[in-house]
Design a protein that fits this description.
Blueprint lengths: L1 H12 L6 H8 L5 H16 L4 E11 L22 E2 L2 H13 L4 E6 L6 H6 L1 H8 L5 E5 L5 H9 L4 E3 L18 H14 L2 E3 L2 E3 L5 H14 L3 E6 L16 H14 L4 E4 L3 H5 L5 H4 L4 E3 L11 H11 L3 E2 L7
Parallel strand pairs: 1-3, 1-10, 1-11, 3-4, 4-5, 5-6, 7-8, 8-9, 9-10
Antiparallel strand pairs: 1-2
């Protein structure tokens, strides 16, 4: 298996895309061979995207009362969870963005619950977005749900240069986690953003019961979509949701997912986000050795992260630098 890993890494480093069959070979790696997988994923990271780490931070502009039935989500109105509906005002959003910048983030994302925004809701947050976009050295991202072309263009006018809209899983597995909207709606939103000149931040959530084939299919879908940034999230089971009884993924499986995605998406930014602290615990610094080159710092939407200073210290201990991200289309 060590030679197979080396051979596939050589193909990637030579500029070739791996097939789904080759990726499934890598998904079978286990035991001590995992360290070889991590080694080559790290080599691919260094050669294809470089040594720097990209950091971002988010704030929940609108929380809860979501009409969608995503089975993992604490914000869905279909489930009885600890989340209460709330909306941040303009000053709170701007304050959160300044705190993110002071904590070392190079991008700040405004995230709203719901299928997608109304035009009025976009205007409700327009002032905050314009002010955040005007802050020096901080890129503005948004994650508001399904968009029309006109809404994507309006967000670009307001300063949004990257849009997060995760596919979450493979097309095959998606109906088992959401029935209130379609996979194609999510993909069309990515296309709408690209037509408006906005980068795509699009990834997945792992640990919902999907197979390795689902994980590979998602990565290849993201590769075909040419998304710039791929968030890797790990399920934190939330009481009250249908996935509440699932066990968090083992740390080494999380790292194997990151490495597999580096093999399949060698020149993309792979950011580790939700579930990092819960699933990886003392192995959080290994995400970079496994091929990641980005992370979300600070709090998540409805769960707390660790202090940003701890993450920056982790990077310093590794001899790594947090770097600004180019928010232009590649």
């Amino acid at each position: 298996m060590k030679q197979r890993i080396r051979d596939l890494a050589g193909l990637v480093l030579a500029g070739h895309n791996l097939s789904s069959e080759q990726a499934l070979d890598l998904s079978a790696v286990s035991g001590p061979d995992l360290h070889d997988l991590f080694y080559w994923a790290n080599r691919i990271r260094l050669e294809r995207v470089g040594p720097d780490v990209h950091t971002c931070s988010i704030a929940a502009g609108k929380v809860g009362a979501c009409s969608q039935d995503c089975r993992f989500c604490s914000q869905s109105a279909h489930y009885c969870t600890h989340i209460e509906h709330g909306v941040l005002d303009e000053e709170a959003i701007v304050s959160a963005s300044r705190e993110a910048a002071a904590s070392g983030a190079s991008c700040f994302g405004l995230v709203n619950s719901g299928l997608g925004p109304t035009d009025d809701e976009i205007e409700q947050f327009a002032g905050a977005m314009q002010r955040v976009a005007g802050e020096a050295g901080l890129g503005l991202c948004a994650s508001l749900g399904v968009l029309t072309d006109a809404q994507a263009r309006r967000l670009y006018e307001l300063g949004v240069r990257r849009y997060n809209h995760n596919l979450q899983t493979s097309r095959r597995f998606f109906p088992r986690i959401c029935s209130s909207h379609s996979y194609d709606q999510r993909i069309e939103t990515i296309h709408a953003c690209r037509r408006a000149g906005i980068q795509a931040c699009c990834g997945g959530l792992f640990g919902m019961g999907e197979t390795w084939a689902d994980r590979v299919d998602l990565a290849i879908e993201l590769r075909d979509l040419r998304v710039e940034v791929v968030p890797v999230n790990f399920l934190i089971p939330i009481a009250g949701t249908p996935l509440a009884e699932r066990q968090p993924l083992p740390a080494m499986e999380c790292l194997k997912i990151i490495s597999l995605y580096r093999f399949l998406l060698p020149d993309r930014t792979i950011k580790v986000a939700g579930g990092r602290e819960t699933c990886l615990r003392d192995l959080q610094s290994w995400i970079f050795l496994a091929g990641a080159n980005g992370m979300l710092i600070g709090n998540y939407l409805t769960t707390c992260g660790r202090k940003p200073q701890d993450d920056l210290q982790m990077l310093a201990d590794l001899g790594m630098l947090a770097a600004a991200e180019p928010l232009t289309l590649s």
